[in-house]
Amino acid sequence: MAKNPKAANNRRPTRKPRAAAAAAIALSGDIEDLAAPSGSIKAAGAAAKAVRAELLRWYEANRRDLPWRRAGERGGGGGEEERAYAVWVSEVMLQQTRVPVVVDYYSRWMARWPSVHALAAATQEEVNEMWAGLGYYRRARFLLEGAKQIVEKGEFPHTASALREVRGIGDYTAGAIASIAFNEVVPVVDGNVVRVISRLYAIPDNPKESSTFSHTAMFELEAVGGFILIWKLPHGPEQFFLDYREITGQLVDPSRPGDFNQAMMELGATLCSKTKPSCSQCPVSSHCQALALSSQNASVKVTDYPRVVPKAKPRCDFAAVCVVQIAQDFDQGIAYATGNDNLFLLIKRPEKGLLAGLWEFPSVLVNEGKTDGLNRRKEMDKYLKQLLRIDVKRRSSVILREDVGQHVHIFSHIRLTMFVELMILNLKDAVDKLCDEGQDSTKLRFIDEKAVESMGLTSGIRKVYNMVKDFKEKRLTEQSQVPTRKRSRRLK
Ligand code: SF4
């Protein structure tokens, strides 16, 4: 949705939509589909019926056999809810993650929490552990909160509007669950569907750019062809706004909405790819306006639809990360060695914001111009002392403190460079005395190596841990080689 109506109305028209629309009008020959009343969309009609039929036929023959598609097919009571839960979990996992990766996560998730009731009884810790590596941890938190909400209410909501009331479920997931599990005639619009619709109708506007998925009263819609929709604005005929949900909603097969939505997504995910669409195998190629335009004009490519929106540059952050290892024996060789005697300090992140509530090694953001080793250590010491109440100097002796390397982790909007150091401490007292009194013990943990290996760490933190492991192994190898070399020199 255009956030500012004025800005929306002032938007400069682009030439391509007009040209595309004009050319597409010429291509649409079905007079029965013309002249829809002003203010309505008329994507239905004979052509739309043909698209539905051809798409569904193709889907039946080619659909991928995915575990969530088999859920609830056993028959008997509860099938719909079982399917709804499966669709919900899989769709949340599939956001930003490839299908082969999700299949494995999904199977393990379902083996552990086969129903919404089972999930509702889980803890956030357990869910985070299961989710570790999938990224976007907020989704895992919402799944758990949503499950609790559904169980509390007593039943799985059956309609898209009721599903949207559940924590973390938006238009997309609500549409997927309602149509696939409960047969509601609602559209599901993800990036794949936008691409297919954009090409079918030769609409170059990209919803990420300026137009909208949601309904708005700002403009009037007028259909002038079976597949052509031109938006006439009250404030000027040259402005184009798109509502892909609206268009897709007109196409959804009323008798098989779930299969239709899956077929659209499947087409976008397989044949109608971003850069190399396989138009010769496409079941709806004879209806595809982008393909028709490209065959008439060599300068037009189907991949021009929808227009590519340049990604916003991610913010660059820098962090000092200190892997604090408590050595139970202060001999350096033993301290480097991997073994269950060593303990590692983990800190729980705040419950809000990036990676909320997840465990990490002590980390502190540093300014871009101040990433030198001296400043990083100063910031880390301050963090340990002031925020965690850990007084390293008073409570321990530092056996080793060395830089291990850097790791760059890319979040959706942040490029985080982590400067990793290893600090090995020998404690003067028991480990629980390392922190001053008053430290909230639920926010930090000392865990042994075995526990670090098995716990659900984010992929960035896992990478940091592996860097430290490699570093220690390298040092051990170097240590073991020194006497050998000395010996061999003596022999010469
Ligand atoms: S014909 Fe090509 S561009 Fe058009 S919908 Fe099919 S795969 Fe996509």
Keyword list:
alpha+beta; EC 3.2.2.31; seven-stranded mixed β-sheet; disordered C terminus; MIG/MutY; single chain; 492 residues; 8-oxo-7,8-dihydroguanine DNA N-glycosylase activity; two-stranded antiparallel ribbon; binds iron/sulfur cluster; DNA_glycosylase; Nucleoside Triphosphate Pyrophosphohydrolase; Endonuclease III, domain 1; NUDIX_hydrolase-like_dom_sf
Descriptive overview:
- It is a single chain.
- Mean pLDDT is 79; it is low at 1-44, 211-242 and 487-492.
- The chain has helices spanning 5-9, 15-27, 46-62, 67-70, 79-94, 99-112, 116-120, 124-131, 137-153, 160-163, 171-182, 191-200, 244-251, 257-269, 289-296, 332-336, 373-387, 392-395, 449-454, 459-491, and strands at residues 220-223, 229-232, 315-327, 343-348, 359-360, 363-366, 396-410, 414-427, 444-448.
- The longest helix has 33 residues, at 459-491.
- By secondary structure, the protein is α+β, with helices and mostly antiparallel strands.
- The relative contact order is 0.11.
- The chain has 2 domains: 14-304, Hypothetical protein, domain 2 (Endonuclease III, domain 1), CATH 1.10.340; 315-483, Nucleoside Triphosphate Pyrophosphohydrolase, CATH 3.90.79.
- The strands form 2 sheets. Strands 3, 4, 5, 6, 7, 8 and 9 form a 7-stranded mixed sheet that branches.
- The structure holds iron/sulfur cluster (SF4).
- Iron/sulfur cluster is lined by residues 196, 199-200, 271-272, 277, 279, 282, 284-285, 288, 290-291, 302.
